[in-house]
Amino acid sequence: MSDNEHRDSGPSGDWFYCLKHHTVEKGPECRAADRLGPYASREDASRAVETAHEHSEQWDTDPRWNDDETSGDK
């Protein structure tokens, strides 16, 4: 296996999703500001953007984190 080839499995936390190139990376290749992760598998990293959207939606609707001024907490 050459240095440029990536294995499909590896240690946990070995996978990243590059937001700049829209690709899954084995190990951090792009700069931290341009990537999501680490993830335990290639599949998890490939779903990174979808997972981030799901988490944002969950947090936006979580009453423990709701900053809505109409809640009476003025």
Structural descriptors:
74 residues, alpha+beta, three-stranded antiparallel beta sheet, 18% strand, disordered N terminus
Low-confidence stretches: 1-10
Q: Please report the total strand number as a whole number.
A: 3
N- to C-terminal separation?
Answer: 61 Å
Strand content: 15-25%
Radius of gyration: 17 Å
- Summed over residues and divided by their number, the pLDDT gives a mean of 81
Question: How many helices?
Answer: 2
Oligomer: single chain
The shape is: elongated
Structural class: alpha+beta
The percent of residues in helical segments reads 10-25%
Largest sheet: 3 strands, antiparallel
Q: Biggest sheet, strands in spatial order? A: 2-1-3
Order of helices and strands, N to C? EEEHH
Could you characterize what this model shows?
This protein is α+β, with helices and mostly antiparallel strands. Helix content is 24%, strand content 18%. It contains two helices and three strands; from the N terminus they run βββαα. Strands 2-1-3 form a three-stranded antiparallel beta sheet. β1 and β2 form a beta hairpin. The longest helix has 13 residues. The chain is elongated, with a radius of gyration of 17 Å.
Summarize the topology.
Layout: E1 15-18, E2 23-26, E3 35-39, H1 42-46, H2 48-60
Antiparallel strand pairs: 1-2, 1-3
Q: Care to give the gist of this entry?
A:
This protein has helices at residues 42-46, 48-60, and strands spanning 15-18, 23-26, 35-39. The chain has 74 residues and is of the alpha+beta class.
